[in-house]
Amino acid sequence: MKVFICLVMLMIVVESKSQTVAIGNPQYAEETEGKIKRVTENLKVEDQFWSAYKKATLEERLAFYKISGISIAVINNGEIEWARGFGDKDVSTKEPVTQNTLFQAASISKVLTAIAFMKLKEKNEINLDADVNLYLKSWKVPLNKGWQPKVTLRQLLSHTAGMTVSGFGGYSIHEARPTTIQILNGVYPANSLPVKVNIFPGTHARYSGGGFIVAQLILEDKFKKPFYRVMDSLVLSPLDLKSSTFEQPISKSKLPFAATGYILDYQPINGRCDIHPEMAAAGLWTNPLELAKIIIEIQKAVKGKSDFISAKSVNEMLTKQNTDATGIGIGFWFYQDSKGDSLLFTHAGGNDGFQSLFFGYRNLGKGVVVMINSSNDYELMYEVIRSVASEYNWPDRFTREIKKYDIKDELLDAYTGKYFFDKDSEIIIKKDNSKLSLEMPLQAPAYLIAESDDRFYSEQLNIKVIFNKSGNNIENLEIQQDGANSIIGKRIQNN
User: Fold this and answer.
1) How far apart are CA 332 and CA 344, in angstroms?
2) 207 contact partners, CB below 8 Å, separation of at least 6
3) Where does residue 451 rank: exposed (0-12), middle (13-18), buried (19+ CB within 10 A)?
4) pLDDT in the model for residue 336
5) Do domains 103-391 and 409-494 have the same CATH topology?
6) pLDDT given at position 15
7) Phi and psi (nearest 5°) for 334?
8) What is the pLDDT of residues 183-216, one digit of tens each?
């Protein structure tokens, strides 16, 4: 009898332990569960000056940001190592987020749209460098007072077409919704401006959701089908992404899996979510599990191991397309100046009530996808990603921590003195015990810490100070406040 009671108690404990993971979220092997625990209990929270980090739990940060739910998928060694939801997909019902919960991916939709065109290019059905007016049947890129711009698909998919309209606000379930052509023309019931070219195509990268609506119409004109059906046949079905859809509004069969979108302080979107007929730019419903499958397919294709897309196509997508400094490929963006094996491709998305972000390494078989059903704050996703990067030993850690630099005393001496700005106002740089201080008019001194021979930061303020030289002479200093160059002081006196 005692043995029986013990067995029953053991079963209750095991059952109770398993219930801490919501139904729909799989339980993993002990080693993986340990990693999940470390990721979710060691989020790196950035201070307001970007100079230090503290640890916090995912539960604490969800409460801090007033975010209802979050879903995460982690790629390691070219496979999905784990995927799990946390928090609530709906605050009122307390239904939990699981790995199968659907979120609006917003601008990540553009990645799949670009993939669809690369598949057509492989079949020689589309030329990325031809004038898109050759493919458009029901609408044309408009003239600007007699001037006809020539725009290519490559430019549309890399935000270099010079097109207007960066993003779209969506529509409530009670509003009339425009056709693709009405969106492009900016006429009722569209709530966005007309899409047109107002700078020279191919000369500058400027984010344009409007350009992707032109791409949407190309597919609708070509296949004479709604965009979501074209994407089903070109991308979603071949990759077996059964949960994902571009259909707007979302179908009744998928609606039970959809998270409710929230704005300020858990306020739900009217009708649970906005509707986005701008499907190519913002219409995808999916989850991190299925987005992770796309990242893995890209990583496999780089090595020539994908049955879906060629290495040539993916390498083209992962090549910088624009002519200026911004790192944009075809559909993808690149993290900072990453190259070669450590090239890190990415995209983010944000519709009212939903935000999402992914990173994937080209050759390292690592990546992460994070999605939330809230507009409240992007930073939570970066806190999660920093924790994943640390746990899985990524080359990039997404931190801005600055190591103190051992600067020579004679350099500090050279920087001291007075700097003139704004009529009669002076900035005074002093040296005290091998440390510089900066004094603005009527303010107490702020201490500066070297991060290189000519760059300094403050632990007291969100500023950077840069000393500019001409030969051996200090000409001026720049004070960057909150990331922007806001004050330049000309050297007027040496100490």
Assistant:
1) 10
2) 159, 166, 167
3) middle
4) 75
5) no
6) 36
7) -120, 140
8) 999 999 999 999 999 999 998 899 999 999 999 9
Task: Count CB neighbours of 18 within 10 A.
Answer: 10
Q: Is the dihedral of CA 235, 238, 244, 247 positive or negative?
A: positive
Q: Where are the domains of the chain?
A: 103-391, 409-494
Kindly state the helix (H) or strand (E) to which residue 380 belongs, with its residue range.
helix 379-391
**Of 454, 452, 429, which is closest to residue 439 (Cα–Cα)?**
429
Is the model's pLDDT at 90 over the cut of 80? yes
Three-state DSSP state, 354: strand
DSSP bridge partners of 75:
80, 367
The CATH fold of domain 409-494? Lipocalin (2.40.128)
Tokens of 300: 């496999």
Q: Do residues 82 and 122 lie in contact, with contact meaning Cβ atoms separated by under 8 Å?
A: no
Asked whether the predicted pLDDT for residue 159 surpasses 90, the reply is yes
Report d(CA 41, CA 272) in Å as an integer: 30
Tens of pLDDT, residue by residue over 211-247, are 999 999 999 999 999 999 999 999 999 999 999 999 9
Q: What is the pLDDT of residues 137-148, one digit of tens each?
A: 999 999 999 999
* CATH number listed for the domain at residues 103-391: 3.40.710.10
Closest CA to 491 of 432, 447, 429: 429
Alpha helices in 250-310 (DSSP H): 279-282, 288-302
Number of H helices, E strands in the chain: 13, 21
Q: Where are the alpha helices (DSSP H) in 123-178?
A: 153-157
